Amino acid sequence: MSPKRAISPFALRGTVFTASNAHQLHCIENALVCVDENGVITAVLHQDDTGYSQACQHYQLQGQLTVLEPGQYVLPGFVDLHVHAPQWPQTGKALDLPLNEWLQDNTFPLEARYADIDFARQVYLSLVDTLLANGTTTAMYFATLHDRSSLELARICLEKGQRALVGRVAMDNPDQCPDYYRDESATAAIEATARFIDDVYQLPGNTLRRVRPVITPRFIPSCTDELLTGLGALARRSGCHVQTHCSESDWEHQYVQQRHHKNDTQALNDFGLITRKTVLAHANFLNDEDMDTLKAAGAGVAHCPLSNFYFSNAVFPLRKALERHLHVGLGSDLSGGHSPSMFDSCRHAITASNALHDGVDPAIQAASRGNGSAKIDFRQAFWLATGGGGEALDLPIGQIKTGYAFDALMLDCRATEGNVVIWPELDSSPDILQKIIYNAARSNIIRTWVQGELVFSR
Amino acid sequence: MSPKRAISPFALRGTVFTASNAHQLHCIENALVCVDENGVITAVLHQDDTGYSQACQHYQLQGQLTVLEPGQYVLPGFVDLHVHAPQWPQTGKALDLPLNEWLQDNTFPLEARYADIDFARQVYLSLVDTLLANGTTTAMYFATLHDRSSLELARICLEKGQRALVGRVAMDNPDQCPDYYRDESATAAIEATARFIDDVYQLPGNTLRRVRPVITPRFIPSCTDELLTGLGALARRSGCHVQTHCSESDWEHQYVQQRHHKNDTQALNDFGLITRKTVLAHANFLNDEDMDTLKAAGAGVAHCPLSNFYFSNAVFPLRKALERHLHVGLGSDLSGGHSPSMFDSCRHAITASNALHDGVDPAIQAASRGNGSAKIDFRQAFWLATGGGGEALDLPIGQIKTGYAFDALMLDCRATEGNVVIWPELDSSPDILQKIIYNAARSNIIRTWVQGELVFSR
């Protein structure tokens, strides 16, 4: 299948859920969402708006109106800010192992297999299909250090229609990377990254930049100073997005302290890697100065609540970051996180915030058990998974809003496969969204669009 | 539909996952599971066992053999030890509210509606259908204080074929229960409970005790001493199961301390409510003495990890309880927990244990952040959701094992609706179970049996 980007204008009428920030949730019943031939939302009309009836009639006469049935809802597509694409085959396994065994005995050997382009192709097709079926319209991917299979991931996203930001991973530090899975030098990694950027932009059919390249130093421990310096310069020159891991765990945080005598964020900033288009995965051990640095640059954080519980030894101080108006979205962190569904990321963002707020150890007195200022609810989780991710990427996505790309999903909560049970006489619109966030599954998602293009349906 | 309990003998051939305790997981490839006309497992043959081929041939000749296809697996049915049936309509909502608003403004008014038998019937049919579709073959239910609708829940479980333990809730304390939703006196509540026990045993078709009554004081704060004393005497007289909440939250734990100058467990024990057939929901703030008391009585704990994160202010010290050989299973705690799926309970049991182990607050130094001795993995979670629940109830369920009831589910991991992605060349049998625990959904469950009877299929 070659990329087909041309669409006809259309409109959807039904209940829309969208958030314009962490505290402003909009539940618009009987909304009319109008999408033009570029896949851009040209209007979101409320039923008492002037022109609503005429617009409905216009689209209906053109055969371009879809009216949602009761129990169906439109939401912005999900933005997953942190996916390790090559780890897809080990999703949901090896989570019983300590980090070192997980990485050295499982993850690195698996990633090394992507020298085999056929294996890469098989995995990446499965992953992109799965994410679209789960309503993830935009994903920010770590691929591997293999040029060809990384580009193949970008090509597959383009073929399937997913909006994607893809990074060819750079990692050259012999002290921390195995011999069999390491860039041969800083220069080689920088040159390969520069080539990858050009190659992605030049992919046939990528004129609208549906797929973008990302400068991707794995994390400070995997990279020499020379590599980090070179990638920082490349970020400045190219204006590309940047992604890396930051202050993920006690070990990693301490490693950077010992090597650079400062926190990850400050070290990355010194290397020129903190920009408006940077997304830092995890960022659990940020201090106030680090948050100020990110705020000043407009850089984003990919909060990965699921993997926080497995590999981070701590939970990202999300509410504090939101109160300081940092750009934050959610990441599934496949396969450090076990689920490809952003619904699971939402749920775990809430449980993680509650754990940080109340604490968890009953042996500790209540007054000193939690930090008492960390709770979020479904509204913030929903924002993070949609508009928050779009804001972190500096792209007009993640909201059902005029001028934004129509990246969206349609849910059917009547699906017999699903556990969302709505009682019309008891549930308000926000109640319904809360029920969706807590219990919707892949089986409830019946259509997924990217830039107005239908990329999944069932 | 009237209960149909008669079945023909049959056998299933395929991969079986079952656990015989928290540390012994059995992955039996190409097993032959034989079930007699009473729904009891008469043999679980391995493919190199003497008689395996003959047995396969025998069942095949009789037309009684089902051979699983690749990607299909048999697991014991799930045992959900803590479900508030009347709260089903608010599942997945109101979780953004503080406990007091959740209880007084939402939960009590909702439970009071079950005076309306038609409403009760509508809700309970939906709930039991949903749980069977999610593979919950046994549920231990709190109903409400309404005699008729509580009995209707028992009747619906029997009609649908679910194994169930149902409690008519007793709550008479005017200081803690609202006027509109309270037993009129201790005597009235005790008499109603005694009548309910008789009524459940006498339900038409309940000769095999598929459905059992449970003595159910809501929790100490809701009950006067007179009521608790009377229900303790009734437990001794009747030999019935007992369920109540125990040391769930700081507030409740402190309330009991102030009223009885001892922990919940000791107070309940003094009232005669701690028996081999008692299941205590939550039990987060148990001390060593409490664990000794439960161990001595053989009483069980319903660990409800999901609601731990919302309403408990702490996480149950599960690993400690397992190391002391307490009987522990899992509870969804609908609707304090948001999911009817025991897969979600398994996942959250693991994340909760990791949170307790590592701690969660990055502002605290690593050495003092967690308790360092709480981690469990998918093996323990699987045991708790199946055999652990059966053991807590003192019933021969939750294992695929000779002499046990064939309460089981069949999963299909090829289902396009599911996120379990298996790579045959990379995944061992335990890997596959781990992937199932982490990513299986309702849509992967294609058949559910209780006592050999097919109660759900798709």
From TrEMBL, chains A, B:
Domain named Amidohydrolase-related: residues: 73-455
Domain of life: Bacteria
Reactions the enzyme catalyzes: guanine + H2O + H(+) = xanthine + NH4(+)
Molecular function in Gene Ontology: guanine deaminase activity; zinc ion binding
Cofactor(s) essential for the protein: Zn(2+)
Cofactor mode of binding and number, as noted: Binds 1 zinc ion per subunit.
Pathway terms, separated by semicolons: Purine metabolism; guanine degradation; xanthine from guanine: step 1/1
EC numbers: 3.5.4.3
Zinc as UniProt keyword: yes
A matching Pfam family: Amidohydro_1
InterPro entries registered for this protein in UniProt: Amidohydro-rel, Guanine_deaminase, Metal-dep_hydrolase_composite, Metal_Hydrolase, Metallo-dep_hydrolases
Biological processes, Gene Ontology terms: guanine catabolic process
Entry keyword annotation includes Transmembrane: no
Keywords, alphabetical: Hydrolase, Metal-binding, Zinc
One GO cellular component term: cytosol
Similarity field: Belongs to the metallo-dependent hydrolases superfamily. ATZ/TRZ family.
Function of the molecule: Catalyzes the hydrolytic deamination of guanine, producing xanthine and ammonia.
PANTHER family reported in the protein's UniProt record: GUANINE DEAMINASE
Name recorded for this polypeptide: Guanine deaminase
Organism listed in the record: Biostraticola tofi
